[in-house]
Amino acid sequence: MSLFGRLMRDRAAAIGTLIIGVLVLVAIFAPWLAPYPEDVAAFHLTDRLQPPSAEHWFGTDRMGSDVFSRILFGARITITIAVIAVGVSVAIGVPIGLVAGYYGRFTGGVLMRTSDVFLAVPQIVLAIAIAQTLGPSVENVILALSLTYWPFWARLVYAETRALKGQTFVEAAQALGASDLRVMVLHILPNTLSAIIVRTSIGMGATILTAAALGFLGLGAPPPAPEWGRTISEAREFLPEAWWYAAAPGLAIFLVVMGFNLLGDGLRDVLDPKLRKGR
């Protein structure tokens, strides 16, 4: 059975895949799915803070804009931040972990101590400090998340590489005269991909949650961008009367993070041979 088939047999993973698929489709087709795409950043003071209705499914915000339309367009910002930030973190962390685990001793010690410097400070605190220094923007949020997330992948690949370096197939490749780069890229890296994929899926959820926290603190996309975290922050002063204003983006964040976590758990069960044997 294919990987996708095994993944779909896991109910939780199937739900996570469905949620993520809907997120991607919403981000791509937001201009066509949103009932009021032209009003995402418009002012309609006569319609401000209207409760959910047939005309406005999730109500309206303090500017009178349709909350449902803003949630759909906010998915674009969310998925852009998550994909780029995680992609950069993987691109930085995986090579560092691979080199550190393969060479060990001085080289590995220097690289891993560098990652320890970043891990010594809670990730969210470090991300807030960097974003605050650079100023509020989507680009700065991506940079802050990338600079604080790469050590997690570096540590993971380092541990996997250390465990694989003494395996027979690696020693055989070295005995046949394969270069260190060839051994790392063609023999060790493919055997770490399952762990990297699982960590990346779970990391996407964590990245979205942290990005929402930065937006809530005013460090994300500047207004009037429909960023989910900022929307919740703006809605605080209207609670509990306009409960829908904060509830809609909060529910969106909850569902997306849950989707990535469910998918990550499913991928772990499918890609880990030891867990498959126990089933």
Task: Report on the architecture of this protein.
This protein has 279 residues and is an all-alpha fold. It has a single domain, classed as MetI-like (MetI-like fold). The protein is 73% helix and 0% strand. The chain has twelve helices and no strands. It has helices spanning 3-9, 11-33, 67-103, 105-119, 123-134, 138-164, 168-175, 180-188, 193-216, 228-235, 243-271, 273-277. α2 (11-33) packs across α3 (67-103), α2 (11-33) packs across α11 and α9 packs parallel to α10 (228-235). The longest helix has 37 residues, at 67-103.
How are the SSEs placed, and which strands pair?
Elements: H1 3-9, H2 11-33, H3 67-103, H4 105-119, H5 123-134, H6 138-164, H7 168-175, H8 180-188, H9 193-216, H10 228-235, H11 243-271, H12 273-277
Helix pairs in contact: 2-3, 2-11, 3-4, 3-6, 3-9, 4-6, 5-6, 6-9, 7-8, 9-10, 9-11, 10-11
CATH architecture grouping: Orthogonal Bundle
Mean pLDDT: 86
Q: Would you identify the regions where 5 or more consecutive residues have pLDDT less than 50?
A: 275-279
Q: Considering DSSP H and I runs of 4 or more, what fraction of the residues is helical? A: over 70%
Radius of gyration: 22 Å
Assembly classification: single chain
CATH superfamily: MetI-like
GO cellular component, one term: plasma membrane
Membrane topology: Multi-pass membrane protein
Protein name: Peptide/nickel transport system permease protein
Subcellular location: Cell membrane
